Amino acid sequence: MENESKLKLENQLCFALYASSKELSAMYRPMLDPLNLTFPQYLVMLVLWETNGQTVKEIGEKLMLDSGTLTPMLKRLETSGLLQRVRSKEDERKMMITLTATGEKLRTEASCIPDKVAPKLGLSIEEYKLLLKTLKNLTIHLKQGGNES
């Protein structure tokens, strides 16, 4: 890449990922509004629908969120009746998060979302799978410190 084009915004991977993420979140909004969920809350629910009964730490690790960000979100989801936060009996320092019946029922309503999203992406199944694999590999590499292989 030529020196003068290195700093052009359009040539920055960081901006392309940022802009795509922002647009993707916005694309979900009309599908999540009827469920009364924000995009980050939807991600929390996905984690719990996959495995109900996890600690705040476990959820935070999967979503790459610290407890300072996650705890207020969990409190709002609890207030809306979708989950319960209960101190672990084995270790009172741990907060267990479990779905309520309402939170479990919401899974059925949300199950159509992935099918609605896929056609809006403008990707073939092969392109989707390749992009997903590439982004997962990028995340792993960056979590390891971004060291060259």
TrEMBL record:
It is found in: Cytoplasm. The keyword Cytoplasm applies. Its main location: cytoplasm. Keywords: Cytoplasm, DNA-binding, Transcription, Transcription regulation. Pfam families: Staph_reg_Sar_Rot. GO terms for molecular function: DNA binding; DNA-binding transcription factor activity. Residues 10-140 form the HTH marR-type domain. GO terms for biological process: response to stress. The keyword Transcription applies. InterPro entries: HTH_MarR-typ (IPR000835), MarR/SlyA-like (IPR039422), Transc_reg_Sar_Rot_HTH (IPR055166), WH-like_DNA-bd_sf (IPR036388), WH_DNA-bd_sf (IPR036390). GO terms for cellular component: cytoplasm. It comes from the Bacteria. This is MarR family transcriptional regulator.
